[in-house]
Amino acid sequence: MKVDKAMFEYSTKLSDFHAQFRGIGTNYNQVVKELRCHFSEKKAMALLYKLEKHTIDLVKLSREIVELSREMYASGSNQDKVDYMASIKVKFRPSSTIGKEGTIYYQIIHKRVIRQLRTDYRIYADEWDEGNVL
Q1: Are strands 86-93 and 113-123 parallel, antiparallel or unpaired?
Q2: SS3 readout for 77-124
Q3: Of 73, 78, 104, 113, whose CB neighbour count within 10 A is largest?
Q4: How many domains in the chain?
């Protein structure tokens, strides 16, 4: 039996990434409940609007991942194994101004082409856990 290590690694990373998406869905429901309990209706609606925009970004990212996966499978078995490899990483870019929030972005590498997908997520450098990233 022959195992394609690149395909196995890709599937593993994709599964991990999907688990994070599911976790975000769970957190989304909890956030909506808390917003309704602790904020006025006007403030809750404003925050829900922002949350909805970030959710749309995640949907766009998931569509990009699906498209890259389709390209990978469509490339066929006649290509080098390098064609099958892809990596997806969540990265943090700190602000150049001290004390200001940095941005979160996604780095996708496929066929040695690096793509960066920007997000509107902003966090402080001390909130980023470098040891616990994909």
Answers
A1: unpaired
A2: CCCCHHHHCEEEEEEEECCCCCCCCEEEEEEEEECCEEEEEEEEEEEC
A3: 104
A4: 1
Token pair 């290590």 is at which residue? 5
The verdict on residue 132 lying in a domain is: no
Instruction: Provide the domain limits for residue 119.
Output: 5-127
Angular region, 112: left φ>0, alpha ψ -120 to 50, beta rest: left
Indicate whether 11 belongs to any domain. Answer: yes
d(CA 110, CA 108): 6
Q: Is 14 exposed, middle or buried (0-12, 13-18, 19+ CB in 10 A)?
A: middle
Read off the tokens for 81.
């194994």
User: Could you tell me if residue 73 is inside a domain?
Assistant: yes
For residue 75, give the DSSP letter. T
Q: pLDDT digit string (tens) for 32-62?
A: 788 888 888 888 888 888 888 887 887 788 7
pLDDT, position 4? 67
Q: What long-range pairs does 26-34 form, CB within 8 A, spacing at least 24? A: 28/55
